Amino acid sequence: MARGKKQNPFAARKRQKRENGPQRPDRRSEPYEETKRDNVSFIKYYHLQKICPTEEEWTQFLESIRDNLPTTFRVTGFKGEAKALLNIIETQLFTEYVRAVAELHQKQPEQVERPLCLPWYPDGLAYQLQLTRKDIRRSEPLCRLHNFLIVETTAGSISRQEAVSMIPPIVLDVKPTDKVLDMCAAPGSKTAQLIEALHAAPEQHKIPPGFVLANDVDNNRCYMLVHQAKRLNSPCLLVTNHDSSVFPNLLQSNEEGSKSVLKFDKILCDVPCSGDGTLRKNPDIWTKWNLAQAYNLHGIQYRIVRRGAEMLEVGGRLVYSTCSLNPIENEAVLQRILKDADGALELVDAGHLVPGLKYNPGMTDWKLATKEVDTVYTSFDEVPESMRTIIRPAMFPLPAEDMAKINLNKCMRILPHLQDTGGFFVAVIVKRRQLSFEKNDVKDLLEKPAEAAVEEPQLDESGKPIEAKNVPWGPQRKRKRLHGYKEDPYVFFGEEDADYNAIKEFYQLDESLSKRCLLTRCVTEKKKNIYFCSEPIRNLVVNNEHNIKIINTGVKTFVRCENRHTVHPFRLAQEGLQTSNAFMGSSRRIEVHRDDLVLLLNCTDPTKPPSTHELKQATQDRCSELGVGSCILKYMDEQFTLFVVGWRGTSSLRAYVDRDETIHILRLLGADLSKFEVNKYDEAKKAAAAAEAAAAAEAPGGPSLPQEETATES
């Protein structure tokens, strides 16, 4: 080795392994070993708890929970084109589904079971397919179905979600006027349902008066949540990053100018759990399951639901749910909070909101056991001293007379064998009066921002302040790892904003659109993206941005787009059109024919937009009246009305939508989608053939040349 040259430790380790003996076999080429769907402790524990009333039903339960989970999806109900998409799904998609499944399983089409419309989901908007996620992803005959699910999910028209996971938002019974808190929101499928419920009456509210505050303790999962919820483009969503068990009281400004502690009308506590209800979807839990998980989680589950109950408005509704079957995580948590509430909280029946759903009532008696379920305890007195820090008195069922008062039988236990689903637990609580341990002191909240603004300087050994720029190591990095990145500021428009005045004049904005609710994410004179949020969300951000970490809010509405021909520097954003359209005047609108819209959407090269001369005469005439800049393309059908952001060029017109939204709209219009269809299996075959041809060309001697070429060369 050359003098002064450092040895590569990784290379040295590899050399050492090579010298020490034979390498381990490469297992990547071996077939994937299926997880053994069995766990002695799991079966012993739940048989002991008698979660099924009869032995026959217990056998059905075991058989079902060892089987794969069917795929389910639901259609986004608040969008105007939902009925048209539903019609396409029930005719074209399901016809293709039957053909593909018949080919996959080598059956006759009439032998294939059609997708099931979930009987308990409102308006028949949810379906269950007798296929697993693996079937859909890895089967060539199902390629078109897979493409449909991906595109429509990205476009926000459908959501792929486990069937039982759809139940908590339904029984929460959200109305457009409700202030809603989702305490443990990531990854966001339930949050999306809450947003849909908030927007369920567009004919009554241009913008819903209520809002959804979605929170999660995990910073990385917060961005998954944003990605999921942003598909719905709601201005009534605020995403925060905080520990739900110690979620701070939030301030709100009242109409008369005073401030008070915010209370929520509806709260969803879908708490972290052991997840054994998802064994059909996540079979690896079979190998990891043990009772210690439930014992460890009981405390945090209780603290989250207790904090939720404190923040709930009197008369408000709280849903507690888990994807666990364990009474320690379910009934034991509820009996504890109901006992502490001393009559202020009441369990209520919610079965009428999910007619057709089969479920068992909550349990009123259960037993605790050791991790291996070899010793069973029926009371805390039986628990040995060594286990009393793990198994706590509150985990045991209350005495019979106390149990009868809290009505745990009103809880809903959804078991896999009842309707071919996953396992789930749901309970609905109504708050009848204030809790004795509730804190509503607004003075503390008003003082906190001032305290937070004054940070004590860090001092070195000599007592001098340390400048932040001189210490790129230490606490700053640690804080970044623990709590994620520092978010950009939320800068709302002032009373006299030149950009707003120009936007208002160009698009003829309605006076009812509050400029106070427009914001940017950077402090600069030249705004790039302009977002819009509802008035209650603005109220929340302004009053609480020093009190809690805000991850995201607002929907992109205007984007800076300047070139030498434009009269106005901001174009409309398709994401925000769902909201902004109701406030736009008529000056930048073009009503288009179906053929025009299909032509515009089929143009995938932005450098070659269709000339206005290719459009219908009526569209040409309207285009001639408009100057260069952003516009709204309107298409009306018997079933639905579509609004699409367009761009009027000097002699052209184009649609300003992304690929997935383009395919979605073309599907609604009944247009040819072959241009956008991607068959990954065909692509893989072509790539393999090309690689084979390249390998053959590089081989000694190369491929044999045709006779004519050989003769020419000679």
Automatic annotation (TrEMBL):
<dbReference type="GO" id="GO:0005634">
    <property type="term" value="C:nucleus"/>
</dbReference>
<feature type="binding site">
    <location>
        <begin position="184"/>
        <end position="190"/>
    </location>
    <ligand>
        <name>S-adenosyl-L-methionine</name>
    </ligand>
</feature>
<comment type="similarity">
    <text>Belongs to the class I-like SAM-binding methyltransferase superfamily. RsmB/NOP family.</text>
</comment>
<dbReference type="InterPro" id="IPR049560">
    <property type="entry name" value="MeTrfase_RsmB-F_NOP2_cat"/>
</dbReference>
<dbReference type="Pfam" id="PF01189">
    <property type="entry name" value="Methyltr_RsmB-F"/>
</dbReference>
<keyword id="KW-0949">S-adenosyl-L-methionine</keyword>
<protein>
    <recommendedName>
        <fullName>tRNA (cytosine(34)-C(5))-methyltransferase</fullName>
        <ecNumber>2.1.1.203</ecNumber>
    </recommendedName>
</protein>
<dbReference type="InterPro" id="IPR023267">
    <property type="entry name" value="RCMT"/>
</dbReference>
<keyword id="KW-0694">RNA-binding</keyword>
<keyword id="KW-0808">Transferase</keyword>
<feature type="binding site">
    <location>
        <position position="216"/>
    </location>
    <ligand>
        <name>S-adenosyl-L-methionine</name>
    </ligand>
</feature>
<dbReference type="GO" id="GO:0030488">
    <property type="term" value="P:tRNA methylation"/>
</dbReference>
<dbReference type="InterPro" id="IPR018314">
    <property type="entry name" value="RsmB/NOL1/NOP2-like_CS"/>
</dbReference>
<feature type="region of interest" description="Disordered">
    <location>
        <begin position="1"/>
        <end position="34"/>
    </location>
</feature>
<feature type="binding site">
    <location>
        <position position="270"/>
    </location>
    <ligand>
        <name>S-adenosyl-L-methionine</name>
    </ligand>
</feature>
<dbReference type="GO" id="GO:0016428">
    <property type="term" value="F:tRNA (cytidine-5-)-methyltransferase activity"/>
</dbReference>
<feature type="active site" description="Nucleophile">
    <location>
        <position position="323"/>
    </location>
</feature>
<dbReference type="Pfam" id="PF25378">
    <property type="entry name" value="PUA_NSUN2"/>
</dbReference>
<dbReference type="GO" id="GO:0000049">
    <property type="term" value="F:tRNA binding"/>
</dbReference>
<keyword id="KW-0820">tRNA-binding</keyword>
<feature type="compositionally biased region" description="Basic residues">
    <location>
        <begin position="1"/>
        <end position="17"/>
    </location>
</feature>
<dbReference type="InterPro" id="IPR029063">
    <property type="entry name" value="SAM-dependent_MTases_sf"/>
</dbReference>
<feature type="domain" description="SAM-dependent MTase RsmB/NOP-type">
    <location>
        <begin position="61"/>
        <end position="432"/>
    </location>
</feature>
<keyword id="KW-0539">Nucleus</keyword>
<keyword id="KW-0489">Methyltransferase</keyword>
<dbReference type="InterPro" id="IPR057286">
    <property type="entry name" value="PUA_NSUN2"/>
</dbReference>
<dbReference type="InterPro" id="IPR023270">
    <property type="entry name" value="RCMT_NCL1"/>
</dbReference>
<feature type="compositionally biased region" description="Basic and acidic residues">
    <location>
        <begin position="18"/>
        <end position="34"/>
    </location>
</feature>
<feature type="binding site">
    <location>
        <position position="243"/>
    </location>
    <ligand>
        <name>S-adenosyl-L-methionine</name>
    </ligand>
</feature>
<keyword id="KW-0819">tRNA processing</keyword>
<dbReference type="Pfam" id="PF25376">
    <property type="entry name" value="Pre-PUA_NSUN2"/>
</dbReference>
<feature type="region of interest" description="Disordered">
    <location>
        <begin position="692"/>
        <end position="714"/>
    </location>
</feature>
<dbReference type="InterPro" id="IPR001678">
    <property type="entry name" value="MeTrfase_RsmB-F_NOP2_dom"/>
</dbReference>
<dbReference type="InterPro" id="IPR057285">
    <property type="entry name" value="Pre-PUA_NSUN2"/>
</dbReference>
<dbReference type="GO" id="GO:0005737">
    <property type="term" value="C:cytoplasm"/>
</dbReference>
<feature type="region of interest" description="Disordered">
    <location>
        <begin position="453"/>
        <end position="472"/>
    </location>
</feature>
